[in-house]
Specification:
It contains 14 helices and 15 strands. It is of the alpha/beta class and 422 residues long. 46% of the residues are buried.
Length: 422
């Protein structure tokens, strides 16, 4: 089977890594897989990015144009916005590029392909949603309460009174509704995102499936903790609490402030027996002042370094307010590191409460602190949590488990396309 993945990047960002891991897993399973990206980072010969300076310029210009459009709207929603208003003249070459594929597989992208171009794809289309953008307006994340605009359609009357200027979200949503006339096969890594898509005004009648992200369990696996700590120059005799995000503590959705509040509850006085390690950003100019030492690793770009860091840790904390299927949680568990998170959105798909970690009441720093303490305070219980975490990863996220599920959906989409054509 020939599959072409369309993604903004192959390695830059969590969604890109998930797409690249699936691409590699399909290759290892004997399928013909390639990627079309705007930003190529890897040296994979089957990943194609902009081929010359003109194409690179156009790609950057499309992103710049989208950013200028978003500035016309003043909104309280701090999540990234993508109006997808790229230049239309690249559509022909894009459609030609994927015309030899059995399946076109969309992932996370910025501006290219445009909304209209997606509607013109004649090959069977699968779309893995890595956030809420596909069924929302221009926003990638927003509230999932009963009055959310994506549930009811983006009308002139249901816009937040605090949002001003040109309604980019409504404009983008209306263009999606106009151009996407035929249902696509939607895949979400979490049950929460599948439920959102199935309740959306745009995709409620589309076929929606839940398949988790594939994870290389031969890279993310238990290793010697003492060795891992030596690599990162971390002390051997402390409890190491780990937190990570692409923007570190700068993304409110990732809940770093909630983690800091829980650490203040957990350590009302100075503690030298615990360290909180933060990856994804370097030490800020004005670091938080709490009673537990903070250690910043900076960005970690390769999987082997990440696997070592998870093995150095005693517990991974994912205090997000809203998540799909965070790979920091799945990666940590594959390394035998229990995870503490809030019982919200896609996080219950990651953590089995009191089996592979702890799910705290949203968004209670006291219960998050209790969860961290509960994981760390009993050695025998900790060993069981660690073993279950690894078993859970192998059972749910190994490529040998995930790839057959994708192949089944690919075949369904191909058969459906044949019926439509006939």
């Amino acid at each position: 089977m020939k599959i072409t993945h369309i993604s903004h990047s192959d390695l830059s960002g969590g969604a890109a890594r998930a797409a690249f891991r699936l691409h590699r897993a399909l290759q290892m399973s004997g399928h013909s897989s390639r990627m079309l990206v705007q930003k190529k980072v890897s040296d994979d010969l089957l990943v194609s990015g902009p081929k010359n300076y003109l194409e690179k310029f156009i790609s950057l210009a499309e992103i710049f144009l989208g950013e200028q459009y978003t500035r016309l709207q003043h909104t309280e929603n701090t999540a990234p916005h993508t109006p997808s208003c790229g230049f239309p003249f690249g559509a022909h070459s894009f459609l030609k590029e994927i015309s030899q594929s059995d399946v076109a597989h969309l992932h996370w992208f910025r501006e290219t392909p445009t909304l209209a171009t997606i509607g013109r794809i004649t090959e069977p289309v699968i779309w893995t949603l890595h956030d809420m953008w596909a069924f929302c307006g221009a926003e990638h994340y927003t509230s999932d309460n009963d009055s959310a605009r994506w549930r009811n359609g983006y009308t002139k009357n249901n816009r937040s009174g605090n949002d001003k200027g040109f309604d980019i979200d409504r404009w983008t949503w209306c263009r999606k509704k106009k151009h996407w006339q035929h249902p696509l096969h939607i895949i979400t890594p979490s049950n929460w995102l599948a439920e959102c898509a199935s309740q959306s005004a745009l995709m409620h009648s589309w076929p929606i499936h839940v398949i988790p992200n594939a994870l290389n369990i031969d890279v993310f696996k238990p290793l010697n903790k003492s060795y891992a700590r030596n690599v990162f120059n971390l002390p051997q005799d402390t409890n190491l609490i780990l937190f990570g995000a692409l923007k570190g503590g700068n993304d409110p959705r990732k809940g770093f402030s909630l983690l800091l509040s829980s650490l203040k509850k957990l350590f009302p006085s100075k503690s030298q027996k615990h360290i909180c390690v933060i990856f994804g950003e370097s030490k800020p100019e004005n670091p938080p002042n709490i009673n537990v030492p903070l250690h910043w690793t900076g960005p970690l770009t390769d999987e082997h370094s990440l696997a070592l860091l998870y093995n150095a840790a005693d517990v991974m904390v994912v205090p997000s307010r809203q998540e799909n299927l965070p790979q920091t949680g799945t990666e940590a568990q594959a390394c035998g590191c229990p995870v503490v998170a809030f019982n919200t959105t896609g996080l219950p798909d990651v953590v089995a409460h009191k089996e592979s970690g702890y799910l705290a009441h949203p968004f209670d720093p006291n219960d998050l602190a209790h969860g961290i303490q509960w994981v760390l305070n009993d050695k025998e219980r900790y060993n069981k949590l660690s073993d279950t975490a690894r078993t859970r990863a192998v059972t749910l996220w190994a490529p040998s488990v995930v790839v057959p599920q994708y192949i089944d959906i690919y075949q369904q989409a191909i058969e459906q396309q044949k019926r439509i054509s006939n």
